Queue: 2 jobs
Job 1
Amino acid sequence: MADATDNTSTGLLTPTPDDDGAPFWDYAAQHELRVQACANPECGRLRFPPRPCCPHCQSFDSEWRQMSGHGRIWSYVVPHPPLLPAYAAFAPYNAIIVELADAPHIRLVGNLVTSADAPLNSIDPDRIRIGARVQVVFTEVDGITLPRWVLERP
Ligand code: ZN
């Protein structure tokens, strides 16, 4: 849905939306977490990452459904050096995989932080637990709004 671009001001990777994924980022800019769904009324299944055709019924009709923004940590990593210099400055930080409460078969990769605008390393990795409930938050980084995740019970 997007290529990663080395952002020149922060050194961190931000997405470069493509045609299929652009609505995801447009909704994120409105602080809405939406997932592409098949618009065939006999199918209607959610899919991620975005793509032109439904893998279940081959319909090319799609819509974007708003999610509750709730999920659970399905897995996570705490990257260790060697890292790109911009990331080494933030280590230890985390990358989590979130299973959406509205669509458990859909999992999004992101970062667990203490608040929307908190640094990448704002949460102690020892506090991260698989299965922990999380809530989406949004922050703007160099003109693009990114979904991030906070613990529902910090
Ligand atoms: Zn379908």
Job 2
Amino acid sequence: MSAQTQRPRITAPQITARKGQDPIICLTAYDAPTAAILDAHCDLILVGDSVGMVVHGLTTTVGVTLEMMILHGQAVMRGAKRALVVVDLPFGSYEDSPETAFRNASRVMMETGCQAVKIESGSYAAETIAYLVERGIPVMSHVGLRPQSMNVLGGFRARGRTKSVAKEIVDNAIAADKAGSFAVVVEGVSEDLANKVTKAVSIPTIGIGASAQCDGQILVTPDMLGLFDRVPKFVKKYANLNDDIEAAVQSYAQEVTNRTFPSDANTYKFTK
Ligand code: KIV
């Protein structure tokens, strides 16, 4: 397909314009074939730093590096042709100064071709968001449960149970909005608090373990496909990949053992 006939990608301003409109459909992806499948159904594909946990087997996202994000970002960009692709800036790559954030975010954009980055946004983040946006980098923010801060928070738990933390979460979202974010992920907060955030900001809220009333939803794709037994309580499994893989591998092992495995060179043809 030539550059002229290819359907244009969804842009960050188009996502912002969806505030209060049709819900924005988002999922994570980390590889080209999955991204190609999601592309027809999703407005936004996030190359989340959850890749560290769901692909690389880490116990938190803290060990994820910029190089890992770039490699997975490149793969997703090869698979997705239409959705807006956002790549997470990993822990340690943006917090210390806007200049560091710009250096790393621009590297991610240039080396992957993605259209935006996401940062987990505490109260320190507004200056960095404005700095990136002014210099041409669309930013999606992330408030509520911020997995990169899990060593401070003490675990993956819902946030905003006290009045002061709930207020801090609303304030962080407002600050991220004012600084120029094009959307904000709201993770692991009560329905009531997610609805408050959605009302308080002019940009779309993308909920995960939050509220159906957010402007959009996101899930970690291997979680919703049922690849793992243990997933957060709010995750609905839309498939049962774990069982399917188990059954497929068992059948394969059986065929190899019984020598009924198809081995004729004539069968070495692509089926589609
Ligand atoms: O890393 C990730 O997958 C995310 C989503 C959970 C929003 O940040």
